[in-house]
Automatic annotation (TrEMBL):
InterPro entries: Glyas_Bleomycin-R_OHBP_Dase (IPR029068), MMCE/EMCE_epimerase (IPR051785), RmlC-like_jellyroll (IPR014710), RmlC_Cupin_sf (IPR011051), VOC_core (IPR037523). This is VOC family protein. The keyword Metal-binding applies. Pfam families: Glyoxalase_4. It comes from Streptomyces achromogenes. Keywords: Metal-binding. Coiled coil: none annotated.
Length: 309
C-alpha cells in the first residue's frame, strides 16, 4: 500500500484548516483489491466529512476518538456518533459527519460487489504467468506524438483533467543516437511532457521536429491508427460536456450501443481533439457477455478520477 498526505483533502473536508486526511491507497491496478482506500482523518471542531453519493463506492466511517453528529440530509441535529461507533454508507447514499470536538475517523472505502465481481481475483490467488517480460509489474505509460506540445498539454489538463508532472529539456544529438535509440531521423529533436491521467495512467506527450517528418495523423484504418478511451459513468453528460469544448468534434450523432456479441450493452462515442487525435468515451453495464467464457476481466471502472499515487 502507499501512504500519502492527501493533497486533495480540501475536496473531502470542510472547516478548520488544521483538519487533516492521510490516505492509504489500495489501488486495484496494484493489489487487485476491492478496497479502494483506507483514510485516517483528523477533524477539528465543526469540520465536516462528506460522503460523495456520485462516487459509486461503499464507505465505513469508524470513530476512533471524539464525538460528532451524523446527518443524512437537511440541517437537523443529526445522530450522535462517539468513540467506537461505526457508520456504514451504501453506494449512492448521502451523508456527512460534523465534528463536535477534535475527532479521529478511519474511513474504509470499497467498491460495491456488483463492480467487484468484474475485477480480477485478489493477487495471492493469481497464478504466476508462464509468459511475458520477466519481472514486469505494470504498464508504466503510453505515449503520443502531437503537433504542438503546449496545446496538447493545455487540452489534457484543462479539458480532460490530467495533471502535468514535468517537462524535459529538448532532446537532440549531433551523432546517430536519435536513430539508434528512438528510431527517428538522426537530426530529429524532441520536446517531452509527462502527465498523470486519472488513477492508473501515465501519459507521455512528444513534439518532434525532423527533416523527414510526416505530419498527417493516421486514421483508425491506417497501420499505426490508434485512439485513447475514457470510461465514464454518464456518457450522455460526458458527451454534452465535450460538445461545449472549443475545437472538439464529436463523431456521429452521439453515443451508440452495442446490441450483441461479447460486449453487448457497451455504449460508446468517438471524438477528436482540436489537433485531430482520436479519442473515445465508453460506458459499460455491470456484466458483459464475455465474462461467461473466461475468468479474466477488463480492468475498471475505478471508483473515482484522481491523480493521487
Amino acid at each position: 500500500m502507499i501512504v500519502t498526505d492527501s493533497a486533495a483533502a480540501s475536496t473531502v473536508l470542510d472547516g478548520d484548516g488544521r483538519s487533516r486526511l492521510w490516505r492509504c491507497l489500495a489501488r486495484r491496478g496494484m493489489l487487485f483489491s476491492e478496497c479502494e482506500s483506507v483514510d485516517h482523518v483528523t477533524l477539528e471542531k465543526d469540520s465536516v466529512l462528506h460522503a460523495d453519493p456520485e462516487a459509486g463506492t461503499e464507505c465505513l466511517w469508524y470513530v476512533v476518538r471524539g464525538d460528532a453528529a451524523f446527518h443524512t440530509a437537511g440541517h437537523g441535529p443529526g445522530r450522535p456518533v462517539r468513540d467506537g461507533h461505526a457508520v456504514l454508507l451504501p453506494a449512492g447514499a448521502p451523508g456527512r459527519l460534523v465534528a463536535g470536538s477534535a475527532t479521529e475517523v478511519v474511513v474504509v472505502t470499497c467498491v460495491p460487489d456488483a463492480v467487484a465481481r468484474r475485477l480480477p481475483a485478489r493477487a495471492p490467488s493469481l497464478p504466476a504467468p508462464a509468459r511475458g517480460i520477466p519481472t514486469a509489474t505494470n504498464v508504466d505509460h503510453i505515449a503520443y506524438t502531437v503537433p504542438d506540445l503546449d496545446e496538447a498539454v493545455r487540452f489534457f489538463v484543462d479539458v480532460l483533467g490530467a495533471d502535468l508532472l514535468y517537462r524535459e529539456d529538448t532532446i537532440r544529438s549531433d551523432d546517430d543516437w536519435m536513430r539508434e535509440a528512438l528510431n527517428v531521423h538522426p537530426r530529429a529533436t524532441a520536446d517531452i511532457a509527462m502527465l498523470r491521467l486519472g488513477p492508473v495512467t501515465n501519459l507521455e506527450l512528444f513534439q518532434y521536429t525532423a527533416p523527414d517528418q510526416n505530419r498527417a495523423i493516421p486514421r483508425n484504418s491506417d497501420v499505426g491508427g490508434h485512439h485513447l478511451a475514457f470510461y465514464v459513468r454518464d456518457i450522455d453528460a460526458a458527451t454534452a460536456y465535450l460538445r461545449r469544448q472549443p475545437g472538439v468534434r464529436i463523431l456521429g450523432d452521439g453515443p451508440r450501443t452495442v446490441t450483441d456479441g461479447p460486449i453487448a450493452g457497451d455504449r460508446w462515442v468517438y471524438f477528436l481533439s482540436p489537433w485531430g487525435m482520436q479519442m473515445e468515451l465508453i460506458s459499460l453495464p455491470g456484466k458483459l457477455p464475455y465474462e461467461d467464457t473466461t475468468p479474466h476481466r477488463r480492468f475498471g471502472p475505478c471508483a473515482d478520477w484522481s491523480a493521487a499515487p
